């Protein structure tokens, strides 16, 4: 049984963006030596996300636009208050809620050393409150 | 556009290089966010449309045993990018502070003075502090001073009132004072200072509850009429975000959301800051 975990840093460059990380995940799996098992990808933040969809720019834009409609920036959020543990105001409730709606992780099978994925399926790191340096985790389990 | 009020307290490169940097940010300044690479600072400026940012250290070594960023750290950041404008901080009660300020300006290339009476534990009107004001006046640099409520722990409110700066403002009429945070909650007191004294300015870095947009809408349209800024203070206000306590983009967005004309916004975002940072030649050479 092989269990390998990598923490991967990613510098986001915009307030909101979808960043294709599929090839990074594939590479972690390849390097792990696992032939058959699972790969789990998890975003380490609560104002960013991780999701799977078809890898085309129009959908990237549609997802962010739709989330903005579902979770408008100017809604009345309880989070808009001083957070004493952080020494700053919390006014990014919309980013947290987008993270909840879109999720923060995904899991794929591994077969014969390759990630089993539909031909259109693309893994995205989703920034909802950037730009920031972020971290996600890729864990490979198998034999 | 210029951001006149940022704190370089969450920079990974400095945290790795200077052993006390992280402790000062966490325990003295009190901020809990992750340290970020310098690249994030520039990207935060980019998404906000900010070209240059003033970096503010706080020399609170006497009162808190640590400096919240040092003059040397700020100077190092400024050497790495022309987008940074470094200010110096000295302890007004320490012997030799005036000379230290002069060196910070003339040798390190820093371009303003930052003081925080609450964190640095001094009374702004204490005559013992006057040598530093005098040095700043002679050097022709502005002084950005903390007024208004501070989020840093153990900072008494009584040290944060804008009127405490009236004695040095009157005594040093050629030294431009920028009262940070619009003096909140003593906004009217800070405004009275800016209206009355030609050498008093205000920065917009105030956010104490709600979102930046909501806070600005209340303070600058209900608590204070927006027309006051548009008509009477258009030459006396500079944009400041207080990053990283708040992201710069949110403060820019909040300010642009007020019913201010483009001309007034240009003064607040650009022209007033440039005027404050331009050192008058006679003042600069007077000490030589």
Could you explain the architecture of this structure?
- The complex is a heterodimer of chains A (143) and B (288).
- With 143 residues, chain A is α+β, with helices and mostly antiparallel strands.
- Chain A has a single domain (2-142), classed as Jelly Rolls (Sandwich).
- Chain A contains three helices and ten strands, in the order ββαββαββαββββ.
- Chain A has helices spanning 22-32, 57-70, 93-102; strands spanning 2-11, 17-20, 37-43, 48-54, 81-83, 88-90, 105-111, 114-115, 121-127, 133-142.
- A five-stranded antiparallel beta sheet of chain A has the order 1-10-3-7-8, with helices on one face.
- With 288 residues, chain B is an alpha/beta fold.
- Chain B has a single domain (2-286), classed as Alpha-Beta Barrel (TIM Barrel), CATH 3.20.20.
- Chain B contains 15 helices and eight strands.
- Chain B has a five-stranded parallel beta sheet with strand order 4-5-6-7-8. Chain B has a three-stranded parallel beta sheet with strand order 1-2-3.
- The longest helix of chain B has 16 residues, at 262-277.
- Chain B is globular, with a radius of gyration of 17 Å.
- The two termini of chain B are 33 Å apart.
- The mean pLDDT of chain B is 95.
- Chain A binds chain B through residues 11-15, 74, 77, 80-83, 85-89, 91, 129-133, and chain B through 12, 29-34, 36-37, 39-40, 43-44, 46-47, 151-152, 207-214, 244-247, 249-250.
Low-confidence stretches of chain B: none
> Mean of residue pLDDT of chain A?
96
The rounded distance between the terminal residues' Cα atoms of chain A is 5 Å
CATH level-1 class of chain A: Mainly Beta
Greatest interface (CB-CB under 8 A), with counts per chain: A-B, 22 and 31 residues
Q: What topology does this entry show?
A:
The complex is a heterodimer of chains A (143) and B (288).
Chain A: E1 2-11, E2 17-20, H1 22-32, E3 37-43, E4 48-54, H2 57-70, E5 81-83, E6 88-90, H3 93-102, E7 105-111, E8 114-115, E9 121-127, E10 133-142
Antiparallel strand pairs in A: 1-10, 2-9, 3-7, 3-10, 4-9, 5-6, 7-8
Chain B: E1 2-6, H1 12-17, H2 21-29, H3 38-48, E2 52-55, H4 61-64, H5 71-80, E3 84-86, H6 97-106, E4 113-115, H7 117-120, H8 130-139, E5 143-145, H9 166-171, E6 177-179, H10 187-196, E7 200-203, H11 212-223, H12 226-232, E8 237-238, H13 248-256, H14 262-277, H15 281-286
Parallel strand pairs in B: 1-2, 2-3, 4-5, 5-6, 6-7, 7-8
Helix pairs in contact in B: 3-13, 6-8, 11-13
